[in-house]
Amino acid sequence: MSDIIALATDLVRIPSTSTDVDGMRKVQRLITEVVLDSAPDARISTGGDDHPWTSISVGPDLAAPLFACHVDNVPVGSEASWSRDPYSGEADDCYLHGRGSVDMKGGLAAATGALLKASSAGASGHLLLTADEEIGSLGAQGTRDAVADLHLTGIIVPEATSLSVRCAHRGASWLRLVAHGRSAHGSAPEHGVNAVMRLASALGPALATTPLRQDEVLGAETASIGTFHGGDATNIVPARAAATVDIRTVTDSGPLVEHWRRTGGIDEVEEILDLAALRTDPNSPFVRSLPAEVDPSPVTYFTDGSVLHQFRPEVPLVVWGPGDSAQMHSADERLEIAQLQRAAELFEQVLLSAS
């Protein structure tokens, strides 16, 4: 298992923030090299220009599980808020430290190690590496043909669940909201129309009246204003302002989008992202075969599972991986090494039992 820790350390040491194509390619190349070094007969396919992806298959061309892992991570933010180098990949007796250790390079290392163990035993398995998951599963959206060609028993997304099997999460609808005004000199604002004031005045009431829905499995929908930008200079009445809203959905986003389009003071509504909610039957044979406890509650975040499940709706998909989800996107992100090692063991069991 020391190889798993070493691989996870190497992965964390590669900066691969979303939109950093070179960094994300480096992670994918490292995994490909590690696999080919131990399994030279592995079948590799790649694609995507701005959002690269890599598909790796080992063993006989038989039905087997697919591990779907994104290789990007969120920005570090202020390095002053970290107690150590966020890309150090330092490992002590208890934790692997660094940005991406939990989300989700630890899960990627565990899945890769399990794939190699299965390959050495003559078993089959698949690994899909995607880019730009953190900004809307953009890389996964380009993998339709690659995923369609695989013989699958199930899909595992090894995001942080503290090793409990989870079968659901809400979808996401991200909207850009734009208000227009008319510019004027800041000394004579009465000659202009202030787009910032128009949009700011609209957001609070619209947010409070958003027709959010409830689901017995997925819970309640939520809406949050994420960004606000407007104006070019202090002494110019702004002619344009824009904000984004993050809505986590339990069903079709259409009515929620229409709510914002009908809101006075907002002139344009652009859909940036629309990901469906994930629902997998926890009693499906694949889920019941997994060597871990099934937690009926949904994870709070979205995953590439939204996209992959649309491509292969007949294939059960679960979120199941090492790490505490509270560590995701946090300063001083760290992954418990015992969970990393246990994940590799459990993933290996899954691959061997499928053959």
Structural description of this entry:
Helix content is 30%, strand content 25%. The protein is an alpha/beta fold. It folds into two domains: 2-169 and 277-354, Aminopeptidase (3-Layer(aba) Sandwich), CATH 3.40.630.10; 171-275, 2-Layer Sandwich (Alpha-Beta Plaits), CATH 3.30.70.360. The strands form six sheets. The chain has a six-stranded mixed sheet with strand order 1-2-5-3-6-17, covered by helices on one side. Helix 1 packs across helix 3 and helix 2 packs parallel to helix 3. The chain is globular. The mean pLDDT is 97.
Strand fraction equals 15-25%
Q: Please identify the oligomeric state.
A: single chain
Give me the side-by-side strand order of the main sheet. Answer: 1-2-5-3-6-17
Question: What is the ordering of alpha helices and beta strands?
Answer: HHEEEEHEHEEEEHEEEEHEEHEHEEH
Number of domains: 2
Uncertain residue ranges: none
* Cα-based radius of gyration, to the nearest Å: 22 Å
Tell me the overall shape: globular
* Share of helix, binned: 25-40%
CATH architecture field of the largest domain: 3-Layer(aba) Sandwich
CATH superfamily of the largest domain: Zn peptidases
What is the tally of beta strands? Answer: 18
What keywords describe this structure?
355 residues, alpha/beta, Alpha-Beta Plaits, 6-stranded mixed β-sheet, 9 helices, 30% helix, 25% strand
Short description:
With 355 residues, the chain is of the alpha/beta class. It has helices spanning 2-12, 21-38, 101-120, 144-148, 195-208, 254-261, 285-289, 305-311, 337-354, and strands spanning 43-47, 53-58, 64-70, 95-97, 125-130, 152-157, 165-166, 168-169, 171-180, 214-215, 219-220, 222-230, 240-249, 268-275, 278-279, 294-295, 317-319, 334-336. The chain folds into two domains: 2-169 and 277-354, 3-Layer(aba) Sandwich (Aminopeptidase); 171-275, Alpha-Beta Plaits, CATH 3.30.70.
